[in-house]
Amino acid sequence: MHLLPRSVTLGLVIILVAGLSACSSPSSQESSTEPEIVQADTASSITVWLDQRTAEGAASIADQFVADSGIEVKFRIVSDLVLELQASSEADAIDVLIAPHALQPQLLAGGLIQALPSNLKLERFLAGAASAFNIDGVQYGVPLSHENIALACSSKGLPAAPKTFPELVDAGLVISMNDGGGDPYHLFPIQSSFGAKIFQPAQSGSGEPELVMGSQQGLAFATWLGANAELFDLASNTETAKNQLSAADKACWMTGPWNSAWFDSEFGEDGWNAFPVPAVGPEPAAVFLEVIGAMVSSRSQNFDAAADFVLQYLGSEAGQVAIFNSTGFPPSNLAALEMISNYKVPYQFGMAGMSGSPTPSNAEMDAVWYPWSQAQVGIIAGVDDPEGAWLEMVDQIKSAIN
Question: 3-147+290-358: CATH homologous superfamily?
């Protein structure tokens, strides 16, 4: 594995997380400079483990850090962070890790990351994106970028963001039900507007979240879903969604930026927009956020420099815009997000995540998805009593995780 000097602009794109899809972004500057192998000097440098696209954008902010501090920034390019960390030894320099929030529990359990200092200024970031790196009340990282779904609407069908859910229903909403498999991920904004959470963060210091799906808020959502089952077509899928929008039978599709190319082709770049999801219940509709962030390694021999680079440089407006320039993912720094407002797709989808919450990354979540899907399908199909189906789902999940 090459260790690259911070001044080298990198070439071949290797994406760290397949779950995050690229969207429109300005092109990065190319260089013909060949990477050279260098040896880490922990006394005068910090080493950042990250994917190649992020490194392309981070190079300029690393240059500024070097100019300000005199401490060199070295990049180690990884395509499978967990695998390469497992294969690493204490001799490998690791000061900063840039990774998706989904990996954070695994990194923490392996003793590979450490808490950040208290001068975080988290108000700079989307609240949900910042909370993605908080476990049991301890902040282990700062968000760099995020991705989420939104309402993608044709301008003819819905020219402005809907202020209420009935307005959206009148215009026509489609949510793919994956040929009868259900889709709690795309239904979550509706569920969350009832205040219906999945897990409550641990309060005991154990790090183990509490399942709260059986709350009164959860039952209220289940009741609403049963009463409004006609809004959802269990036979729907991606193709039927596209056909309905093309025929103007529906105005909006709950989807992500990965379908932006289809919208551009079908309606023209100016013929559609992405809007936040309006609330159904009493609280804001919170979409799930997939977040990339920077964390300080527990192996760092230069904690102060590593934390400064994470907080003051990667977390800054300039740092996040620079990374956006190479990745195309919306910055989680609020000021940086405003600075990319000319880039329609990442800006509009990024803004639609303003009230979002991170997709749960704890191990227990693996036991949630299937029963959650099946409960919603049964309720929509009308074969199950909504509250009964929901409580049965909760019992199934508790049996699986206990």
Answer: Periplasmic binding protein-like II (3.40.190.10)
